[in-house]
């Protein structure tokens, strides 16, 4: 759709999310010339900042030549205002309207009667949950104009459990239409996550074996080599399950496991994702392994409880491994094992789809085929395949059919997840955003286990910073049918 003007208001413009993600993502789109004409960015936050201080902050994570950054900043301005004072929101509205007027007076389209409908306003909430609601209510009451297109961009945490998420959603949906809301999960903007649909539905040989007849188990693993450094206050309330599992990893699971959507249309895609989530019973404690990191073995890295912002008695897990079962005809009996770990040995987010053994094979069992989709740090897809070792012997070996993006494509073209998602917000494409019913289902699956962990004060197992995880980590997936190749 063509807009006469597009305005993005970044609330929380002096905060971390805005500097680290929102402004760099907008810059990436600007640099790639993907922003529509008459595009303006208004940073809004409480601090009184001189323009040069704002510019310094907003560009602190942008890596590009100074002249390009300077021309990007020409479309950015800063307004300070409170999050609860109506007058400040009136000023914001006047500022937005003045910009829109200017843009449309430049354009001959002004003659059109529905000129207002050709304006887009994006309200980007780079805000902590405590101020998100007052801001979105004030925007709706004071700034919102039903004659223009309004998009509200929000980010997790979307509540704390199923109940609080429902309360939050009902408060937001009093004011905003679902079609106006873009619930961001940045994993949906990652290249490899966006690629899963193409991989599954455009390749005969994957789709043909994508079921319980051929797949033994699926592992979705998130490992990070750092702890809560500086974020303990937030993390201690939420824990690893809420921080990455219920949202990021569950999104990956739903795209891996869903049925083929009726079309690529956003509602069809989200219908399919929601439908598969509905087939998943809540996770149980008996199929869960919890851990919390302690000081590194060499003593150089602090334990979780050494973080000053963490409660000294905290039982909050920084490691979790759970088994998820999907009760439908495609997946019945195929465990999806999800693991999320902070302060472990490596940085890696990876999906492993392990295939079943060939029945009655004449070849002795050596290993299983595995399709591996690496989401980060590098984008890769490889298929673990058994071949005969070259040479005169008939020895077998496990090798990789390897598609490493950096070797095959220009991987500098891979956008930042936030840039890709912002482009979808501008283009009104909801496919990669979380719908309310989908979110509710994800909470339904995780809320009982979270309640049990908290009510029964389950003590997580310790593991040293930089290790693989707590004791039992290496056997957990084996319990659910994962086959480790024997030493080759
Ligand atoms: C965030 C979590 O949502 O995702 C962080 O709050 C986590 O704790 C991050 O580190 C991981 O994202 P990425 O893109 O680095 O894999």
UniProtKB/TrEMBL annotation:
Task: Provide the Gene Ontology terms for cellular component.
Answer: cytosol
| Metabolic or biological pathway, per its Swiss-Prot or TrEMBL entry | Carbohydrate degradation; pentose phosphate pathway; D-ribulose 5-phosphate from D-glucose 6-phosphate (oxidative stage): step 1/3
Provide a GO biological process annotation.
Answer: glucose metabolic process
What species is given as this protein's source? Answer: Smittium mucronatum
The UniProt similarity line reads:
Belongs to the glucose-6-phosphate dehydrogenase family.
Q: Which GO terms describe its molecular function?
A: glucose-6-phosphate dehydrogenase activity; NADP binding
| Residue intervals of the Glucose-6-phosphate dehydrogenase C-terminal domain | 197-476
Q: What is this protein called?
A: Glucose-6-phosphate 1-dehydrogenase
A matching Pfam family = G6PD_N
